[in-house]
Specification:
Elements (H helix, E strand, L loop, with lengths): L8 H17 L1 H37 L12 H40 L1 H14 L12 H25 L8 H29 L4 H10 L1 H14 L6 H19 L11
Helix pairs in contact: 1-2, 1-8, 1-9, 2-3, 2-4, 2-9, 3-5, 3-6, 4-9, 5-6, 6-8, 6-9
Length: about 270
């Protein structure tokens, strides 16, 4: 796999911008966008609803005690606990909303790669062709290739879920702990989403999980910028449903550039 330009963070931003332009400006890509947008919008909203429901249910369980109503006139100790519990509940619910906003785009991309690959894959391939990406000879295909891709995606999903769960206890320390959680979760999500968007490129070249990991580790600036900007775009209410798909188009553009296609500068004619 060629990387003649040694693309960096600026290229990641440029690819997302160019992907957005192509997704809305190319008639060939726009048709795929409409189908993908409808499927992604429904799936993304459903995932967000499930995550929020689960997070709020967990918070409710954590801050509920069997002592509620046990005393008609609670003493100062119980009153203090009720106040602390209420403040903790508010802090945990805020963290749950922020955490869901950051985690949902990454989880959806993982789930979409496993269950709905035809929709995102068609957008990626069309954007790559529009960006003059060269054909890849001997690109893996068939059942064995599909099984390999699903195994890699499942492994990455398990790693992301495991690290995300490991960060949750930080929210037991309201204020600083929750702030550290949001920052750490954002960085984790940025790396995971950057890797996920590049996974289409990796699959095209038949890279194994270990080969993908080495590639990602060797280009932290490119991967974190791609994933970080894509994550921030997916935090914009309502418009995020569009960005979920245009980010895939941006990944197709970046794939073409990585394989030596001439790089188009944002704003160029």
């Amino acid at each position: 796999m060629n990387d003649p330009h040694q693309l960096g963070p600026a290229a990641a931003v440029g690819a997302l911008v160019e992907g957005f332009r192509l997704a809305l400006g190319s008639s060939r890509l726009r048709r795929r966008m409409l189908v993908s947008f409808g499927v992604n919008a429904l799936g993304f909203l459903l995932l967000c609803a499930l995550l929020l429901w689960g997070a709020f249910a967990l918070v409710g369980w954590l801050v509920t005690t069997p002592a509620d109503g046990a005393a008609a006139e609670p003493g100062w100790l119980l009153s203090s606990w009720l106040w602390i519990r209420g403040a903790l509940g508010v802090a945990l619910r805020v963290a749950a909303v922020l955490g869901t906003a950051v985690v949902a785009p990454v989880l959806y991309n993982f789930v979409g790669s496993l269950l709905l690959p035809i929709f995102s894959g068609s957008v990626f391939n069309a954007a790559r062709e529009e960006a003059a990406g060269p054909p890849v000879l001997g690109a893996p295909d068939g059942f064995v290739a599909t099984a390999k891709v699903m195994a890699v995606e499942t492994r990455r999903l398990a790693r992301f879920a495991g690290w995300s769960l490991a960060l949750l206890p930080l929210n037991l320390f309201p204020g600083l702990g929750s702030a550290v959680y949001v920052c750490a979760q954002f960085l984790l999500s940025a790396r995971a989403l950057g890797w996920d968007l590049l996974s289409y490129h990796f699959e095209l070249h038949g890279l194994s999980f270990d080969e993908q990991r080495r590639w990602v580790r060797s280009r932290p600036g490119l991967v974190l910028t791609l994933g970080g900007v894509a994550t921030l775009l997916c935090l914009v209410p309502l418009v995020q449903l569009l960005f979920v798909t245009t980010n895939v188009a941006g990944a197709g553009v970046l794939s073409a550039w990585l394989d030596g296609a001439p790089r188009r500068r944002p704003g160029a004619g």
